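Example for tutorial group B:
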């Protein structure tokens, strides 16, 4: 039995990746709120599931920052997504918080812990 079906992936938006070789500011941080620091990876369908308890296992650690679980189909592009990527759906931005989890090790679906960001979309 499948955990997800194709009809589950009804949120269509864009994936952006933080550009490589950005120069950090004086405190050593990259300004992730600056839209010029992001490049478009491409459009993607996702299923967005809120995490009600605000707790989620990332690696083997309980993490209270994760607000959502994003699920998409497993392919070469999706398995390369990392914490340097974000998904923008309408006026909502979800920053990937941890590595993707290959659901049931079947190479069909991949789940990402994510944090809904107050940053401007795009």
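The residue assignment follows.
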């Amino acid at each position: 039995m499948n955990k997800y079906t194709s009809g589950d992936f009804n949120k269509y938006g864009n994936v952006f990746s933080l550009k490589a070789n950005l120069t950090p500011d004086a405190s050593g941080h990259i300004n992730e709120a600056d839209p010029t620091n992001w490049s478009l990876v491409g459009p993607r369908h996702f299923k967005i599931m809120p995490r009600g308890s605000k707790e989620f296992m990332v690696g083997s650690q309980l993490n209270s920052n994760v607000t959502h679980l994003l699920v998409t189909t497993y392919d070469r592009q999706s398995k390369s997504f990392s914490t340097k990527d974000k998904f923008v759906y309408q006026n909502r931005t979800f920053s990937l918080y941890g590595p993707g989890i290959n659901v049931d090790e079947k190479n069909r679906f991949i789940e990402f812990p994510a944090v809904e960001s107050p940053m401007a979309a795009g």
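The two ends are 36 Å apart (CA to CA). Compare this with the pattern of hydrophobic and polar residues in the output above.
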